[in-house]
Amino acid sequence: MRPANINKISRCFYITSRKYSEEKSVYQKHEEGPKPREVHGKLYPEWRKPWIHRDGEWSSKLSVFVEKNPSPDIMYALSQIPNLTFDKIKAWWSDMKVIQEKQNQKFLPERVATLGSNLAAVHFFTFRQAKVRLRGSSEWIFGDITTLNLPSNYSDGYYVEAIDCSEFHHNGIRFEGLENLYGLNFLKWLSLKNNRHVDVWCIDRIAGQNGKSLEYLDISGCNICVGCVFSLARMKTLKILIITDPGDNVELQAALSMLEQENPQLLIKAVENIDDNISK
Do you know which Gene3D superfamilies this protein is assigned to (predicted)? Predict the structure, then answer.
C-alpha cells in the first residue's frame, strides 16, 4: 500500500475519532446546566417563557412533573367550565370513547416484529371477538385471553386464510384496525358484515393491502358508496362480493353493473338491509 493512501486512511480515522471525543457526556451537560435559549441569535423573550422558568417565580421539586406549556385541550376544557352542561359532558365522553377505540385498534410494529404478520393478526382479531381460520384448516380460532393458548413469540405455520369480523367487539373495526391486515399474503376470505365504521377509506385500504389475494369479501351493513366500487375494481382476484341491497340508489346500481362488466368472474350478491327490516 502506498504511503499516500495510508495517510488518507489514517486521516479519516483521526477525524472520526476526534468527532466522537468532542461529544460531551450526559454528566458534563448536567453539570454545565441548561443553556439560555436563543432564537435567530437573540435571547428568548421573557414573556414567551413558561411561567415556571421566569425570574422571580418559585418552583418546588415537584415541578419536574409540570409540562412546559398547558395542553390546548386542557385549556379549552377549563374555559368551558362556566357553561358546562350535561349534553357537553355526554359529547365529551363519547369523543373519549372513540379515541380509546382507535388507540385500542392501532397497528403496533413491535407486535409484528415479535410475532410476525400472520400470528400478530391472530392475536389482534381473536382477542377482539373475531374469528380466524388458518391455511389448510377447517376450524375457526376464537375465544378470549383466558381460553386461547397462542404462542407469545414467532412460530411457523400460522398463515391466516380467513377472518370473520362480523362480531368484532364494541362498535366494530375501524380504519386504524384494518392496518393489522397488512402482510397477510394468504388472506382469501374476509367478512366485515355489519361494521358500520367501514367506509370508502377502509375499502381503499383493504384494496391496497390485500387486493391481490382476496377472493371473498362481505361488506353488507357497511357504509358503501360509489367511491367504494372504484376501490373494489382494484381487487382483480375477487370472486364473491356480498353487499347490502342498494335499493333506489341509481348511481350505486350503475357502478356495480360496470364492476360486473369489468370483472366477469365476480359474483355480486345483494342482501336485505337489516335496519330496514327492523323499522318495518
Answer: Ribonuclease Inhibitor (3.80.10.10)
- Looking at the predicted structure, is the pLDDT value of residue 4 above 60? no
> What pLDDT sits at residue 199?
96
Whether 14 maps to a domain, the answer reads no
Contacts of 124 (CB under 8 A, 6+ apart): 111, 177, 180
Element of type H or E holding 115: helix 109-115
Specify the CATH number for the domain of residue 134.
Answer: 3.80.10.10
Quickly state the pLDDT bin for 260 (edges 50, 70, 90).
Answer: very high
Q: Are 172 and 149 in contact (CB under 8 A)?
A: no
| Of 183, 180, 192, nearest in space to 104 by CA | 180
In the predicted model, is pLDDT for residue 153 greater than 50?
yes
Q: Are 195 and 172 in contact (CB under 8 A)?
A: yes
> Number of folded domains in the chain?
1
Element (H, E) at 244: strand 240-244
Averaged pLDDT for residues 200-217: 96
The three-state secondary structure class of 217 is strand
More confident residue, 44 or 213: 213
- What is the b/e burial string over 89-110, where b = at least 16 CB atoms within 10 angstroms of the residue's CB? eeeeeeeeeeeebeeebeeeee
Query: Does a structural domain hold residue 73?
Result: no
